[in-house]
Amino acid sequence: MSSHVNKLTKEELRCSNASRLWKGLSGIWGVIKDGLCWSVQDGTATDFWNDYWLDGEGKLASMCAADSHTMPATVASMVAANGGWNWNQLCQWLPADALAATAAIKPPRPDAGADVPGWRWENNRTFSVRSAYKALTADTTTPLVPISTDNTNCWSRIWKLQVQQRVRVFLWLVLHQRIMTNVERKRRHLAISDVCASCQSEAETIIHVLRDCP
User: Are 56 and 154 in the same domain?
Assistant: First the structure.
């Protein structure tokens, strides 16, 4: 079942006599599928490069140091003969933070059962309309973060502001330190320097962009 969920396409979900709800889900299946994260068990249903399965990390295809991600690979295929991670391969492809995140997860085992899908925008991995709506309305170029119960009051205050939806989402991302500044780009190994491109004098943090940059 887990493997089937991961391979479903919009076309497979469509049928002429489906309910309006089902037709609506098929229309946004790409967004729903992108919201899936995987708890790795036997590792056979989880795409090593293109699925979300490492806590705190994005898709590994966006941060690997080689073209190996163009070849299909499951998480199970990255296990060595001794049952541990195949570090000889992984150290050639992944940056240090991704290697550390991988080391924190037990390698999949054939007898561990099927990989389990969850909803990555909630800490408890359970789907909610609130987080799905946020995923649909947010700027897709800006990374989202899971909603925490500690931040519920903050989000509620932002939600009540009489401004455009994109402004609410932007404020929420600012308060959660999720704006893609040069500091964040460098942390993700997407840039060499974290210096502000405008003033060329300080690191481009969120507070620098919004307040301190001359």
Answer: no
